[in-house]
Design the sequence.
């Protein structure tokens, strides 16, 4: 049984336009993915293809006017906005994509400590240990989110997902843009280590090259639909083994490849 | 350091300008009113002769042209003399000192109660937005805003004092007893109803502002993330709600000092509570210029302080507005 299974997911928003005219937008039409234990699934696609919304739909943090269709199963159990509550922060961890996801008025060390188990001294010790593991200085903990550099912020967000010993699935929404090479490798290695310990990882990203270093499979999204789902090894050289046309275009459009020819 | 100095000088200059304007306006309005301060000072005694009238007017300097009267008040005020009250025949400073404590207790109590209740109600409404409790709290707030203080005071008197008999009808100590003979509990007992009335006036203001700010907080991405990390509504309130919504709530509550003072005038009048507000009304009705100007100036300083504290707090409590030495 797969760890996470998303079948034919759709997300629509009920909106009101000019003159209170009601209309519905459907940014996600039909997404299907599957992640097994210890597997890393890279989710790639252009901006607006529904990658982040998928993560939000799984975590049950869509806005109130969202209408969700299809099904999401965690270890065979159907989950919705209500039942996700018993998993999130425990079995399912979420790494968000920007600094806006940190409380602007709280020192980052205290934000990492929220949800850590144990008494205060244990929590402090655990947080300092996590900071060390991700190459953050002890004094970095005293900073407020707006004082963090891009790379530091990614690493802080990363530490927040490492707090529960029961984690079985990590959903990382764009954890890599804007970070330094060494920090990038650190984050990728960490995801790989997590996966090797039997945790499923969903890596949402723009950066296909980096993702391929660690991913087992790749799911390609376009305009709210899953268009391709293939092993990571299919992405090689000039993409001859990529059968889907959109996937091949996406691969070729990377600056490292025949980008100029594609134009 | 230099910045702080400029800030302080700027504030003091503004305050002085404000006090000058307020005192001049209050003086002008009082002189335009039909109340004759000489007659009022003898309680409209019909036996007052023309000579007596003139002698009283001369004694108080009321026979001089009005600009001269104002300037002599201003000169004395600047040298620290607030003048003599026509009604109390005591220095204005002494009258204010006697009444100020009763008013401070009333306003302080109401201010704290309305702030706490307002913040809690606003938070509940925000967490339950669009649902039943939100509707009830919003409806009550609008009702509070529209209903005048004195009317609420009268209803409270009717219900709690007359019908239920829980609280005394008025004044700050039991009737026929000296202030020095009353216990703290007795004084508190007399304070409850006026303070509740006054609190009620301030709750809606904080509630509605807190609700708006808290809804912004709850719609923020950091609260989404907090949810994704498994924080419950209560944890979100404790960890993120209070710290992000409390600064605007406190700020708005300090700027409310003006209405608080205005409300206390009405509440003190309804409950015959002998504080600055009731004294101010008396001074206005009987044309006691020095007393009225004295209390007006004190009130203006009080309101100015409230706004200044709000200003400073906003800078201190919001880390993003705080400047760091680089």
Sequence:
């Amino acid at each position: 049984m797969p760890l996470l299974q998303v079948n034919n997911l759709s997300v629509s928003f009920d909106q009101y336009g000019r003159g209170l005219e009601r209309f519905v937008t459907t940014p996600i039409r039909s997404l299907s993915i599957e992640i097994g234990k210890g597997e890393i699934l890279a989710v790639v696609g252009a901006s607006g293809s529904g990658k982040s919304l998928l993560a939000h739909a799984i975590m049950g943090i869509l806005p109130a006017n969202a209408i969700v269709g299809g099904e999401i199963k965690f270890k065979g159990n159907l989950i919705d906005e209500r039942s996700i509550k018993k998993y999130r922060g425990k079995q399912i961890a979420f790494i968000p994509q920007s600094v806006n996801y940190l409380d602007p008025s709280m020192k980052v060390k205290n934000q990492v400590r929220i949800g850590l188990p144990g008494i205060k001294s244990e929590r402090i010790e655990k947080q300092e240990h996590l900071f060390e593991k991700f190459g953050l200085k002890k004094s970095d903990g005293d900073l407020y989110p707006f004082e963090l550099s891009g790379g530091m912020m990614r690493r802080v967000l990363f530490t927040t997902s490492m707090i529960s010993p029961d984690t079985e699935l990590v959903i990382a929404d764009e954890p890599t843009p804007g970070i330094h090479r060494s920090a990038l490798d650190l984050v990728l290695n960490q995801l790989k280590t997590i996966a090797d310990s039997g945790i499923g990882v969903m890596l949402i990203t723009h950066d296909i090259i980096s993702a391929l270093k660690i991913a087992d499979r790749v799911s390609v999204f376009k305009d709210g639909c899953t268009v391709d789902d293939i092993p990571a090894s299919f992405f090689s050289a000039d993409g001859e083994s990529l059968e889907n046309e959109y996937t091949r275009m996406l691969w070729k459009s990377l600056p490292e490849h025949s980008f100029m020819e594609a134009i | 350091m230099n910045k702080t100095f400029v800030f302080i000088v700027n504030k003091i200059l503004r305050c002085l300008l404000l006090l000058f304007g307020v005192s001049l306006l209050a003086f002008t309005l009082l002189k335009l009113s039909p109340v004759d301060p000489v007659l009022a000072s003898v309680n409209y005694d019909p036996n007052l002769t023309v000579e007596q009238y003139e002698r009283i007017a001369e004694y108080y300097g009321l026979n001089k042209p009005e600009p001269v009267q104002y300037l002599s008040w201003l000169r004395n005020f600047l040298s620290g003399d607030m003048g003599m009250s026509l009604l109390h025949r005591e220095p204005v400073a002494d009258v204010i000192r006697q009444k100020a404590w009763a008013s401070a207790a009333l306003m302080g109590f109401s201010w704290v109660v309305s702030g706490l209740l307002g913040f809690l109600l606003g938070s509940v409404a925000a967490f339950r937005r669009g649902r039943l409790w939100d509707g009830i709290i919003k409806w009550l707030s609008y009702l509070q805003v529209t209903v005048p203080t004195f009317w609420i005071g009268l209803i409270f008197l009717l219900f709690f004092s007359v019908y239920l008999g829980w609280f005394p009808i008025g004044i700050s100590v039991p009737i026929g007893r000296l202030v020095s003979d009353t216990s703290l509990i007795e004084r508190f007992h007399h304070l409850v109803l006026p303070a509740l009335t006054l609190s009620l006036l301030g709750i809606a203001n904080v509630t509605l502002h807190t609700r708006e700010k808290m809804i912004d907080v709850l719609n923020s991405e950091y609260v989404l993330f907090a949810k994704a990390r498994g924080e419950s509504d209560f944890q979100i309130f404790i960890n993120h709600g209070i710290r992000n919504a409390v600064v605007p709530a406190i700020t708005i509550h300090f700027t409310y000092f003006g209405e608080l003072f205005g409300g206390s005038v009405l509440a003190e009048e309804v409950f015959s509570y002998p504080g600055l507000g009731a004294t101010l009304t008396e001074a206005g009705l009987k044309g006691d210029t020095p007393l009225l100007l004295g209390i007006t100036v004190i009130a203006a300083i009080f309101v100015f302080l409230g706004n200044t504290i709000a200003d400073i707090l906003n800078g201190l409590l919001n880390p993003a507005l705080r400047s760091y030495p680089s």
